[in-house]
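User: Before I run my own analysis I want an independent prediction to cross-check against. Here's the chain; please return only the structure tokens and, at the end, one sentence I can use as a sanity check.
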Amino acid sequence: MTDVNRPYVADKPPLVPTSEELRARIPGWGADLDPKDRPSYPRERFDPEATGAHWEFPDRQEETYPRERSIEHGMLPPVFGTVAPLHGLSGLIRRTAYARFGEARLAHWLLLIAGDRVEAAGAHLRAAISLRPDDPVTETGVRTESARAEWAALRSGRADTSHRWIDPLLVTGPWVITGWIGWRILRSVLRRR
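Assistant: Structure tokens:
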């Protein structure tokens, strides 16, 4: 029983070997311990003159409208993105996530996911109203997957082959359910008339 490695034993575990012991036992161990032996060492030295930076802290980007920021951070970074500002109901949900919950809380991430889903639903609704609705077959890649050597992909050992059977249900399911609900609503309205 003494030769078996057990995670919890009463005896003191063996000490970590010293650098000299490891170097004697393993050829080439510790080759980069001496900074002179490291090719990247000159880049590791802190030399502000070598960077060409002319500031202690970079100039801050102007915040033209209130930006979302985590409650853990006191300020925005010097530069931040402004490509897709928050808007509508999804923006309200995301602002709530940033204003009330820290990044370590599950509620923060669930609200961000809910905001994303609300934004996606709004995009689908805008596409339907524009009389050019989304095409779930071509835009999700279902037709491409089946057209380009599906059986070769199955044999290649790809990681996503285990859930491929459910992908058509996940892609078409919401459309079928939404169509069924719409048909039920339309049918009930027509019966009342």
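Sanity check: Residues 101 and 107 are 7 Å apart (CA to CA).
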